[in-house]
Amino acid sequence: MFLAWSPDGYALFAGFENGWALWTTYGKLIGSTFSADNVEKERFNDAYLDGLCDGAWLPGGVEIALVSGKRMSDESIRKSENIYILELARSSVTGMFNAQNIARTVLQTPSKLLVYRGYDQSDLQTLSTEQTLWYHVPIPPTYLVDNYPIRQVSISPDGRYLAIAGRRGLAHYSIHSGRWKTFLNESMESDFVVRGGMCWYHHILAAAVESDDMYELRLYSRELQLDNTLILHVETLPSPVVLITLTGEDGLLAYTHDNALYHFIFTTTKDTVMLRLVGQITFHGIVRAPARVRSISWILPEEQLREGDPSRDVALATVLFLVDGKLVVLQPSTTEGGELKYEMRVLFQNVEYYILMRDLPATQRQYILPPEELNGFPEQDLNDSLWVFEGQDLRVWMDVKDLLAGSVESKELPPAVKVPVDFYPLSILLSKGIISGVEVEIVERRDVAFSFFRLGSRTHLFFNYLLRHHLQNRNEAAAIGLARQYEGVSYFEHALEILLHDVLDDEADTQPEQEVAVLPLVVRFLSNFPEYLNVIVQCTRKTEVASWSHLFSVVGSPQVLFEESLSRGLLKTAGGYLLILHTMEKLSSSSQDMVRLFSRAVAEEDWDLCKELARFLTALDNSGKTLKEALELVELRSPGGDEEKSFMFESARRLELPTASGGSSRDNLSPISGSSRGGSPGGGSYLDVP
């Protein structure tokens, strides 16, 4: 067995006698051979899947060299004659932490970048696991050969541009044109190194560089060639930059090794774009090791955001640091002498990344419904939410202002909402209500002599957890306000169904007291939406029958729900309630309810539902007698009055009723006149009778 940390410290590889596994810093399993027991290792030349005796990471942290080996006895190990190179894909956040890289997923491999494109797709396309959601960008070999490994990757907030930086220089790419731009002059490229990160402001690339013992912030335009004579602006700093990040609509924060935070504003003139320093502050005695700070953000009061002087931002901002895996908040206040001081508090530990949604540009934030669409319910968008990934699950504070108020007024922080995920989450698609991520699977093919790994896209709904949190806190109005924000997504009904199912699953056995039970609140909440009846029936059909009695003790009688569905014209939903009534032994096969529904389905020419009802009746009585009686009751008759001919419905090919001659009813096709509601006798709809 051996253990090996990646060069950047964000992944731990463990080799065992019978396989290997890969974890993130705080324990999220992201790859393993132990989940691939069905791989035919003997058929494939994949000894590295069956056990390892040694391994080492290669520079760059996107490849690892492995030596397979099996223990033959207590003292001997049979080693492979081969060295296997396992390629990995790492998130751009590991090389450069900022909100833009979290908001738009980019994966880096040894020779290309993978850009996730689900943000701009339709709801259902975003949920797809197909590889088409990933846009492959080969890194130019001319840059790679001289500057490998690639250390930093940056994507623009709108997803149009990419930038990379290796050992020296940088290069940038346009996804729309498919073109890279690199330095034509090699001496200019090798003259500097990007040390403090990069970020995009529209088509302007800001880079923190070190050149000839000088520390600079440079602005490059995507529209110009990469050349030192075409740099738009250079800002010199007194010490190396630890990190840079965008803030607000036009702000840039730069944190340096001398423990200073600089606030710049992008200023556009007729001919160029410049950086203007509007404020700075130091954290001496507060942050002990600036080099260990991984990320920084700040939160400004609403009044300051709307109409405040930018030069006052540094004095009024609440600052968030991610240092040594701890998310720390520094809240400003003034002493009696008027001096600025900070109160420090640790919000969370073992943090792999966080994202403050207000750091995103307006185009990526959640659309806020106008008051007339909220119908009097409070506005509940998530544009001020704070998301933290702590190695296993995501934690969400829906309004960071409540979090900051709690940290000042009391010792207890308001609880975060837990959103469990069984894959590695990479970004939050706020407007779509889903979390996107990846998982790895081993693929075998018969036409090649080896197996290989494949990245698969994963998505997970999150707003059902937030709705439940509001309901558990007895805040139904907030839950309705939040749900209104997501009512337009195509899977909204499915999310409500998951909410109901999870609560029912938790309370069906325990059946808590009315004062603490959440299920009644969920049911009342669901009744505010037109999907209510269908959500109930779909959830019921996917739940164990033993839980039905508890559900309907809260929801009400399924007979009443059937009547309501029928009155609203929700025929398929009404059919679901008939099935529930039958399962609960409250419905006979000759029930008038079945006839009423059958008649409505025929009248509205809903032949799919007719087919399902016919199949249901045939399952109750294989002789077909029950189905015949039902068809006669809804006025569907054989035109010749032949009692021996069977009745079936369009496209129902599996159901065959016995005929008098004992043959298949497929030999006795006969058109059937439509009911009087569907048209004139003999001239209505025709149902094929197999």
Any overview of this molecule?
- It comes from Orbilia oligospora (Nematode-trapping fungus).
- Keywords: Membrane.
- It is found in: Membrane.
- InterPro entries: Ric1, RIC1_C.
- This protein has 690 residues and is α+β, with helices and mostly antiparallel strands.
- It is 24% helix and 30% strand.
- The protein is built from 20 helices and 35 strands.
- A hairpin with a 4-residue loop joins strand 33 (424-429) and strand 34.
- Helix 14 (532-541) runs parallel beside helix 17 (571-583) and helix 18 (592-603) runs antiparallel to helix 19 (607-620).
- The protein starts with a strand and ends in a 57-residue tail after the last helix.
- The model is unreliable at 638-690 (pLDDT under 50).
Instruction: Please outline the major beta sheet.
Output: 4 strands, antiparallel
Q: Helix tally?
A: 20
Q: What is the radius of gyration?
A: 32 Å
> Given the helix and strand composition, which structural class is it?
alpha+beta
Give the N-to-C terminal Cα separation: 66 Å
CATH class placement of the largest domain = Mainly Beta
Keywords: Membrane
Subcellular location: Membrane
Protein name: RIC1 C-terminal alpha solenoid region domain-containing protein
Pfam families: Beta-prop_RIC1_2nd, RIC1
Helices and strands in order:
Blueprint: E1 2-5, E2 11-16, E3 19-24, E4 29-32, E5 52-57, E6 63-71, E7 77-79, E8 84-87, E9 90-91, H1 92-95, H2 99-103, E10 106-108, E11 112-116, H3 123-126, E12 134-138, H4 141-147, E13 152-155, E14 161-165, E15 171-174, E16 179-181, H5 186-189, E17 193-201, E18 204-211, E19 214-221, E20 233-237, E21 241-247, E22 251-256, E23 260-268, E24 273-282, E25 293-299, H6 302-307, H7 313-316, E26 318-323, E27 326-334, E28 340-348, E29 353-356, H8 371-374, E30 386-389, E31 393-397, H9 400-409, E32 417-420, E33 424-429, E34 434-443, E35 452-461, H10 463-472, H11 476-485, H12 492-507, H13 519-526, H14 532-541, H15 548-555, H16 558-567, H17 571-583, H18 592-603, H19 607-620, H20 625-633
Helix pairs in contact: 10-11, 10-12, 12-13, 12-14, 14-17, 16-17, 17-18, 18-19
